[in-house]
Amino acid sequence: MQKFYKLNQYITAPQLRVIGPDEKQIGLMSRDEALFKARQMGMDLILVADKANPPVAKIIEFSKFKYQQTQKEKEGKKKSKGGDQKEVRMTPFIAQGDFQTRIKQIKKFLTEGHKVKLAIKFTGRQITRKEFGEKILHQACQEVVEYGSQESQPKFQGKLLWVIISPLKKIAKK
Prior knowledge:
The chain is of the alpha+beta class. Helix content is 36%, strand content 28%. It has helices spanning 31-41, 62-79, 96-111, 130-143, 169-172, and strands at 15-19, 25-30, 44-49, 56-60, 85-90, 115-121, 148-150, 155-157, 160-167. The two termini are 33 Å apart.
C-alpha cells in the first residue's frame, strides 16, 4: 500500500513543526515561512505527520524522501522474515526413511523460527484406520519435542489430521 504525502502548496495547516534536511528540528513556523525556506534550499516541503499537533513537515527532496521510505519498508520486511507457517504432509502408512526425512525438514523449519503445520493425509479407504494417522502424528511430535511444542490438540478437517507445532524460543534465536 502506497502512502500519499502532501507537498509544498498542498499543505493546508497554518502552523508547522519543521525538520531540516539534516534531520535536525528547525522549529515552529508558519506554512508560508516553511515553504519559503524550502524553496531557498531548492527542496520540497513534505507533510510527514499530519495528525500531530502542530503537524510535522520535513524539508527534503521528494525523490530522496521516497527512496528513504522504501528503504525503511524493506528493512521492516527483513526483520519480520521468521515466523511464516510451513506445511509438511505425511500419510498414515509412511515408510520409515520418508518419515525421518520429513522429521529432518520439520526440525530445520523450527530452528529457522517458522511454525510447522504437520498434516497426515488420508486417501481412499485409509480414513477407516484413523488410529494409524494418530500414531504417526504422535510419533512425529515426540521426535521434534526439543525443537518445538504442539500448539493444540490434533484436529480432523476433511481427510486431513493436522497439528501446528511452534518453535521453542531458545532454538529460534540461534
